[in-house]
Write a structure and sequence with these properties.
Layout (H helix, E strand, L loop, with lengths): L2 E4 L5 E4 L7 H7 L11 H9 L5 H4 L4 H5 L9 H10 L21 H6 L3 H17 L4 E5 L2 E6 L2 E8 L4 E4 L14 E2 L3 E4 L7 H18 L10
Antiparallel strand pairs: 1-2, 3-4, 4-5, 5-6, 6-8, 7-8
Helix pairs in contact: 7-8
Length: 226
């Protein structure tokens, strides 16, 4: 049976299954080049859904972790091995420590405590903004960096490098224009503590990513009684 749907961007589409993915949004957000473009759409969505948007983040995972993702098949592994090798990386087989920190942190507070004051203040502010943007967002600590989850799925990550701090995760369609003046990659937005992402842009971006999660993984109401 065909079901007509409307995505958050107003596109109308018909699906014969329960899949909520909008074909127009998928086509618009599909990368035209780079390593992600070499993957089939289901595998790409599986990685994006788990917050894997750069080769560095990919290298933090094992092959078995990827194969456990819904929609990710073994045919994508050789492609990713090749891409990682070309970048001087490889899939992890052991837990890695976080570079640049004196000891391996086990949670967000420990991570922030070890940063320089300006980076710590910038990420503390970012942390509050993310949690306030979407009610129901929960914190966790994953792959050695502070992470945020919504409806059981990765929303965004944040972290610090030597010369910048960053918000990690795929950037929704339409936000690159709003982020002129910042270093925007396929899976990160880099900024200096002295020039944070504008609060209104950050809020809209996080809400847009939450809306994507709601479309891809709708929460079904639990029936009371029967």
């Amino acid at each position: 049976m065909k079901n007509q749907r409307i995505c958050p961007n107003g596109h109308r589409f018909v699906k014969t299954s329960d899949c909520p993915t909008c074909p127009q949004c998928t086509a618009a957000s599909a990368p035209k080049d780079g390593w992600m473009a070499k993957l089939a759409a289901p595998a790409r969505r599986a990685l994006e859904g788990d917050g894997i948007s750069t080769l560095k983040i990919l290298a933090m995972h094992s092959e078995n972790e990827l194969l456990a993702l819904h929609g990710f098949g073994p045919g994508s592994i050789p492609i990713l091995r090749k891409e990682l090798k070309a970048a001087g990386l490889q899939f992890t087989t052991t837990t890695k420590t976080v570079r640049g920190l004196s000891t391996k942190p086990g949670n967000t507070d420990e991570y922030l405590k070890q940063l320089p004051p300006d980076q710590r203040k910038a990420l503390e502010t970012l942390r509050k903004q993310i949690l306030a943007a979407v009610p129901g967002t929960v914190e966790e600590f994953a792959y050695g960096v502070p992470a945020f989850r919504y409806n059981g799925h990765p929303l965004v990550y944040m972290g610090a490098a030597k010369n910048h701090v960053a918000l990690y995760g795929s950037v929704p369609v339409g936000f690159r224009e709003m982020l002129k003046g910042y270093t925007v990659g396929k899976g990160s937005i880099q900024f200096s503590p002295g020039k944070p992402i504008p609060a209104d842009v950050l809020k809209a971006l996080v809400k847009a990513k939450a809306a994507e999660i709601e479309v891809r993984w709708p929460v079904k109401d639990k029936k009371i009684g029967k």
